[in-house]
Design brief:
alpha+beta; seven-stranded mixed β-sheet
């Protein structure tokens, strides 16, 4: 086992920069991974103070070696720590409850993209929206997209070459009106992708822009006396507005925020998340964390926020929290609301 002097020498040579640190036991196993705004100060605190928590005392006794990685920003440290904890699952780190069984909606990375639900996220360039806690909501959205945009469901490789060679023939879905026959070039790629863009907006909660776009189209076709096509757009509008009406309305003045609350029971904590876009709640999620050491509420909340933001790919620039975590994210502002709709 490393002597106190050897460990003290390692600590004294740590940089005063943001990064992550890893504690190893005598067998070379990672037993703890942490993040720090200033590596030297944070790691030294494990050896310079008396700890009341028995598990923390045991952790310090088992530290045989210390390694670290310097990063550019606090956000880089947060994300790197989160990914390494999930990869190595050290004994003394907070345990994040696995949510691999929750469904996602995938916009497949391919020509004439398919849209479907999956419980497995694959890094293949496809877009994933979620995770959703309600399978009923997922089915409702997919049915909405099917009715409104006539998307293909086949797994054909509809490349330009394959289509020009006449490799495919339209199937039953085309004949019953559920598909517009891209495989035989009956639908252009631009026309198909207009629907895909609308769907991405809907999944991000931006239904208003899609509604405006469809209203303009409906007016245009009505003016051109193409009443059949104008009626089909009106049917899409009715479906979309009905879906929008079912969203939980918070406040029309709240445009795009992430909301986190925190509750604790013994050594188990829960971080609750709401996604609010254009005044409506479009997603909710709860993450369970099991405390292992003397983690503060601020540290536990931050772990939850980091994990959830990675999963939902959030672009919100404002986060509502019950108290301010120690680390921040680039171009993101924490806000502890004191009154009004945000407080509610």
């Amino acid at each position: 086992m490393s002597t106190p002097e050897e460990l003290k020498n390692i600590v004294s040579n740590l940089p005063d920069e943001p990064g992550i640190y890893q504690y190893f036991d005598s067998k070379g196993t990672i037993i703890y991974i942490g993040k720090a705004k200033r590596l030297k100060k944070r790691v030294a605190s494990y050896f310079n103070k008396n700890h009341n928590n028995r598990k923390t005392i045991l952790l310090v006794r088992k530290i045989f070696d210390i390694r670290y990685i310097v990063v550019e920003t606090e956000q880089d440290a947060l994300i790197l720590e989160n990914n390494l904890i999930k990869k190595y699952q050290p004994k003394y780190n907070i345990q994040l409850k696995d949510d691999k069984t929750f469904p996602w909606i995938c916009v497949k990375n391919e020509r004439f993209p398919r849209i479907f639900y999956t419980r497995k996220v694959i890094q293949d360039g496809s877009l994933y929206f979620g995770p959703f806690t309600s399978m009923l909501l997922v089915r409702t959205l997919l049915e909405l997209f099917k009715q409104t945009y006539k998307l293909r469901t086949c797994k054909y490789n509809i490349s330009e070459e394959n289509v020009s060679r006449g490799k495919f023939k339209v199937c039953l879905q085309y004949h019953i009106g559920n598909c517009l026959g891209a495989c035989e070039n009956h639908q252009t790629e631009d026309n198909y992708n207009q629907g895909i863009d609308d769907i991405k907006h809907i999944l991000r909660g931006n239904i208003g822009s899609v509604v405006s776009h469809l209203k303009e189209q409906m007016k245009k076709y009505a003016e051109e006396l193409d009443f059949e096509f104008a009626l089909s757009i009106k049917e899409r509008l009715d479906i979309l507005q009905n879906y929008q009406a079912k969203s939980t309305v918070v406040s029309p003045t709240i445009k795009n925020i992430d909301v986190y609350s925190f509750t604790k029971d013994d050594n188990v904590s829960f971080v609750n998340f709401l996604k609010v876009v254009n005044g409506g709640i479009i997603n909710s999620y709860t993450l369970e964390l099991k405390s292992k050491l003397e983690e503060t509420d601020e540290e536990l909340l931050l772990s939850g926020i980091t994990e959830i933001r990675q999963k939902i790919y959030s672009n919100a620039t404002e986060i509502l929290v019950p108290f301010i975590p120690l680390f921040g994210f680039e171009n993101v502002k924490y806000n502890v609301p004191q009154r009004g709709d945000k407080k509610k």
